[in-house]
Specification:
Length: 395
Amino acid sequence: MLSLPAFRQEVRHEFDRILQYWQTYSPDRQDGFYGRVDVRNQPDPSASRSMVLIARILWTFSLAYEVTRNPVHRKLADRAFAYLRSRFVDPKYGGVYWSVRADGFPEVTKKQLYAQGFALYGLSEYYRTTKQPEGLAEAQKLFRVMVDKAYDSKNGGFIEAFNQDWSDTDDYILSKGPLRKSMNTHLHLIEPITNLYRVWPDAEVKKHTKALLEEVFMEHIIDPETARMRLFFTEDWQARSPEISYGHDIEASWLLYETAEILDDKPLLQKTKDLSLRMATATLEGLNPDGALTYEYNPETGHKNEERSWWVLSEQMVGYFNAYQLSGKQHFLEKSLKSWEFIQKYLLDKERGEWYLRTDAAHHASIDADKITAWKCPYHNARACFEIERRIGRG
C-alpha cells in the first residue's frame, strides 16, 4: 500500500499538473476563458461561457494562489474575477446569469440558484486568498439577493430557479419537471455559504449555514434510516425520486463535516461526525471491485449507471480519507488510495493533460469527450488533490 508521504507527494504533483493545463488552455486571448476545449486541447472560440465553469475557475485559481504564491495563478484569479463581475453580474436585477455568449453578451439570463451558489463560492475564495475588498463586496451583494429572492421562509431551503427578474418560473434545469428543490443545488449552496462564513462571520450568514446543515440536510435531504440523500423535492420537502447518487453522497459526507467544523459547535460537530461516517459507510454498497463508485442506481427499476466518472472518483478519494480520519478505520484509507490508483490508471490523460471525463465499466476512457465544458472544470479534481495533501500534511 502506498505510504501517506508518497500519497501526498503524488497528489501534489497532480495538483500542479492540473493547474498547468488550465493556465495553458483555458484563457481566451480575447476575453475571459473559453467555454469549450476539445480532447486535443483545441478551443472553440464561439462556444458560450457558463457561469458554473467561470466560477469554478475563479475558485480554483484563488485556491492555487493561496497554495503556490505563483503570480500566474493570481493573475488568472484576477482575470476570472473581472470576467465574472463584468459579464455575468446582472446590473439591473442582481445575481448572475446562467451563461453569456462568446462575445460576452448575456445568453441565458435565468437565475439558477446552482449558478448563484458557485459564483458565491468563487467570490468568497477569491477574497479569502487576495483580501481584495471588491471580492467580498460582490460576495455580500450576491448572498443578500439570494436570501432576499430565493430563500423559502416558510419551508426552509432555497427555490431552485427564477426568471431574470426573480419572478417565478417553471424552468428548473437541475430539477425534475415542476419540482422546486433539489439535493444537488442545496449541496452547492451549503458549500459556498460555509465558505462565505469563513471570511465574513456575519450573524445572518451563520444562521443560514447552520440551518442548511441542521434543518435542510439533517431533517429533509438525508434519509435517517439509510443515510443516503434524496435527490428531488416538492417545495414542502416531499421526496419525489428513488435514485441513489453515490458520488453526491460521498461528497456530502465530507463537505457537511467541514461545515460543522467551521461553525465550531461541539454538539453539532459530534452529530455531524456520526452522520458523515454513516453516509460514507452507506456508499460502500455502490463501490465496485475496481475501487470506483457506481455513478447512480435506481432501486425501483434496477437500472444502474455503470460509468466511472472523473468527479465521483475525485470526491470519493476525499470522502473516504475523511472517513479514515474520523474513524481511524484502515479500510477507509485503503478505499481512498484505491480511488487514486483508479484515477492514475484510467482517468489521467498523460499525453495531453487533465483527466478524461469518464470510463465505462470495462475501463475504456471517453477519449473523444471535451476537456473543458460548462460541466468539465478544474474544481473537483484540483480540490481533491489539495484536500488530500492538506489532510496528510496536518496528520
